[in-house]
Write a structure and sequence with these properties.
By secondary structure, the protein is α/β, with parallel strands linked by helices. It has 10 helices and 11 strands. The protein has 2 domains: 220 residues, P-loop containing nucleotide triphosphate hydrolases (Rossmann fold, 3-Layer(aba) Sandwich); 60 residues, Alpha-Beta Plaits (2-Layer Sandwich), CATH 3.30.70.20. The protein has a 9-stranded mixed sheet, sandwiched between helices. The model has no long low-confidence stretch (mean pLDDT 93).
């Protein structure tokens, strides 16, 4: 089972949900926890890790052999991202715009374009008891977020019963790449006007992708908050509510798993996980 944890804005509690779901699930099954918030991964901070391994991630960048090129312009016509432009006497390549689709290499009639490499980040792997960790770390100044997320998700895809993806915030391309090919999406929202606005945007995206989903309300204050009323009107299932409590914030700030540090929290996350499993099973039937 593959679960993505997503939110329309940062700071809503995605990592809180992802880490504690993984910790609770790991008591009965093998879990793989992926940190796909590659610009600032922090999932592994909550666990003692062993067997750390770091490897670079590269993307293809076209390299033009000007001695062969006749400046026909086909490569520029093929590229939808304007990463390669043909001028009268030279071809200019813009690596930051390139999506490594290989279109220019395939379509060049003279074979004047070769495959170059550029490092865009790293993938970090580690282990903690029954949980395997995979984190993508984007190189400073790089913009190939979706490409690094794609490579991070491919690491050891079949060596665990449960895969949990901590997605980047928002509704743009990196989020879509993160939730692609998952069985269920947990949407985390906070009961504020801004939180509801961004949650609504993300729900529209997930529905267009055809993904089953449910909502977890973080920092919940009362039974009839903004998000609860919204979900009731839209007939969206609320998987659980994490109360706004100082003890939860303190434990989280100290790098502790609240499912271990605080009473009753393990049962809450276990309940959320059971509801997700039921939903996935219903869709599979």
């Amino acid at each position: 089972m593959k679960i993505a944890i997503a939110s329309g804005k940062g700071g809503t509690g995605k990592t809180l949900i992802a880490t504690n779901l993984a910790a609770v699930a790991a008591k009965s099954q093998k879990v793989k926890l992926y940190d796909l918030d590659v610009e600032e991964p922090n999932v592994a901070l909550f666990f003692n890790q062993e067997n750390k391994n770091v490897r670079p991630v590269e993307k293809m960048i076209p390299v033009v052999n000007e001695e062969v090129c006749d400046h026909c312009g086909i490569c520029s016509q093929v590229c939808e991202y304007h990463a390669i432009i043909t001028l009268a006497n030279q071809v200019m390549v813009f690596p930051e715009l390139c999506h490594s689709c290989y279109g220019c290499l395939e379509m060049c009639p003279l074979g004047a374009i070769e495959e170059g490499k550029k490092e865009i980040g790293q993938i970090l792997e580690s282990q903690s008891e029954n949980i395997g960790f995979v984190s993508g770390l984007l190189k400073i100044g790089e913009s190939a977020t979706a490409a690094l997320i794609r490579d991070t998700k491919k690491v050891d895809e079949n060596d665990a019963q449960l895969h949990i993806y901590d997605s980047p915030p928002g509704t743009s391309c990196p989020v879509i790449e993160a939730v692609n090919e998952v069985d269920f999406v947990v949407l985390v929202g906070e009961p504020t006007p801004f939180g509801l606005h961004d949650l609504d945007l993300l729900i529209q995206v997930v529905r267009q992708l055809g993904k089953p989903f449910g909502v977890v309300i973080n920092k919940a204050l009362d039974e009839q908050d903004l998000i609860t009323k919204y979900c009731q009107e839209k007939q969206i299932e609320i998987l659980g509510k994490i109360p706004l409590q100082q003890e939860i914030a303190r434990s989280y700030a100290q790098g502790q798993l609240v499912s271990k540090a605080l009473p009753n929290m393990e049962e809450l996350f276990r309940s959320i996980l059971q509801k997700i499993s039921q939903k996935v099973a219903e869709v599979a039937q």
